[in-house]
Design a protein that fits this description.
By secondary structure, the chain is mostly helical. Helix content is 74%, strand content 0%. It is built from 21 helices and no strands.
Length: 430
């Protein structure tokens, strides 16, 4: 690299650090930071704004226009997943599953917490988003609190289930398909490596804090009224949330058709009074639920095309190669010790800079599978501990818990889960 290129590389690094700081201190929302950072990277690297040559990489065409469409497949998966979640809600399956779990658990706090963790994980594996977290949380949290479970434990039961559900939610996998060029089946093959340690460590964390905290206060006023009422659905219809997951894992179906079949099976098994209205209104409300995530994906696509532009890549790749883990031990230590960088929208957050960093890792020589696995594993820290997650904010507010207390008490457990997954994963990718 020439001296001028080093100056440009340092300029890009400074922009990167400034924007990470702005996002971590919540001075600039990620939804705006990502495209702004993408444009600044390109300007510093000397990418032209426009060109008469259609083969030339430009800010207007390659980065902004093509970049905004780069994750179109992931956005489609997100929309269909949100649609499926709203259908499960509208036909009464979500509340019926929770009601069954409460009946099975009786008045045993430990069993209630474990069963709700499992139940909510299954529900979130079919549908994510803040709306679904609120729907589930407003039902299970009051039951747990009235059973004597502390506010903190009730909080971590829900947010840990969000983390587990996110790993199995096939609509989230499309981002790895678009960013790293992997097949859905390859992503499915590595899901248990990221999920099993998280499930076991989360269960250990929940049981530990139940025993340590003892009985919580039983007198607790629910802040908002929630639907204790619900439509009765046939017991066999309760398998509906698992249909898309089974279709992807067992029958190797792509994400969108798996979700569409899952939605149709749900309608046939429950047959609501107005099925067409349920399907159409669920689609509109589902899109509303994921509007923010869709905008984030557009920003991620723009950033990806910026860092993959030849001029920018030529400046950043030497820096990435210098820190790239090249053996199993460094792979484990690098991603375990740096996993907290996934929180506060940090550089390892797949919904922020993480996707661009992963793409650069692959450009620098890491296999796409190794990059995908590392990003999914460190995302467990973000899904459970990150105070900037909208679901963490809502759960902490609903249970009147300290959101920073949740971060401090869950982070060590999540780093243990990351360590176990990275050790297991290192045997598979090296």
């Amino acid at each position: 690299m020439t001296s001028f290129m080093w100056v440009q590389a340092i300029g890009i690094l400074l922009v990167f650090l400034v924007f990470v700081g702005l996002m971590m201190t919540r001075k600039l929302p990620t939804i705006l930071a990502l495209p702004l950072m993408a444009i600044l990277f390109a300007v510093i690297a000397g990418v032209p704004w426009m060109s008469n040559d259609p083969e030339t990489t430009t800010i207007a065409k390659t980065i902004l226009s093509s970049g905004s469409m780069r994750l179109s497949g992931a956005i489609a998966g997100l929309v269909f997943g949100a649609w499926f979640g709203q259908i499960l809600n509208k036909v009464g399956i979500t509340k019926s599953i929770i009601r069954k779990a409460a009946e099975l658990a009786g008045d045993k706090p430990m069993l209630i917490a474990v069963l709700f963790f499992a139940t909510a994980s299954i529900i979130f594996s079919a549908a994510g988003g803040l709306g679904m977290v609120i729907l589930v949380g407003t039902i299970v949290i009051p039951i747990m609190l009235t059973a004597g479970i502390s506010q903190f434990v009730a909080s971590i039961v829900v947010i840990s289930a969000v983390g587990v559900g996110a790993l199995f939610n096939v609509s989230n996998w499309a981002v790895y398909v678009d960013v790293l060029g992997l097949s859905v089946q390859t992503i499915a093959d590595y899901t248990l490596v990221a999920a099993l340690p998280l499930i076991l460590v989360s269960l250990g964390m929940i049981i530990f804090y139940i025993k340590r905290d003892g009985k919580g206060r039983k007198a607790w006023a629910m802040p908002t009224a929630s639907g204790g009422e619900g439509k009765k659905v046939p017991a066999f219809a309760l398998i509906s949330p698992l249909v898309p997951v089974i279709l992807v894992f067992a029958f190797k179906l792509d994400i969108v058709p798996a979700v569409v079949i899952g939605a149709l099976v749900t309608i046939l098994l429950t047959w609501p009074k107005r099925p067409i209205h349920v399907l159409s209104s669920a689609l509109v409300e589902g899109i509303q639920d994921v509007a923010g995530a869709m905008a984030l994906m557009i920003g991620i696509g723009i950033l990806l095309n910026s860092v993959m532009a030849p001029q920018v890549s030529a400046l950043i790749s030497p820096l990435i190669e210098a820190v790239l883990p090249t053996n199993p031990l460094m792979y484990i230590l690098f991603f375990t010790l740096l996993s907290p960088l996934a929180i506060y929208r940090g550089p390892l957050n797949v919904w922020g800079l993480g996707s661009g960093i992963a793409a650069l890792f692959v450009t620098a020589g890491m296999t796409p599978v190794a990059a995908m696995l590392a990003l999914r594993v460190v995302s467990n820290v973000q899904a459970v501990s990150d105070p900037t997650n909208s679901h963490n904010v809502w759960v902490a507010d609903f249970t009147k818990s300290d959101i920073n207390d949740i971060l401090k008490k869950t982070l060590p457990w999540m780093m243990v889960a990351v360590l176990i997954s990275m050790v297991l994963g290192s045997f598979m990718v090296f």
